[in-house]
Design a protein that fits this description.
Length: 81
Amino acid sequence: MDKFTYQAGTKNQFGEDRVSIFNGVKVSFEDLARLIIELIENEERIYPKDMGFRGGDMLKEYLQEVLDTGQMPDKSKHQLN
């Protein structure tokens, strides 16, 4: 089963609406924002800036590339595991 699926939404006034589903659960903007906050805070905890690490900055850069390009970034460009 795919983690992400999509289904037709009900906001079709200006174009085709698609609802994002993750593991069977509809994802809202608020859900997405809460997840991003948690991921950045976790990066800050495990890679603290006061110890010379970049904390959540690497994740922020990755997400900014996604926003700028509308594409998934090249994994070799980012330290993804």
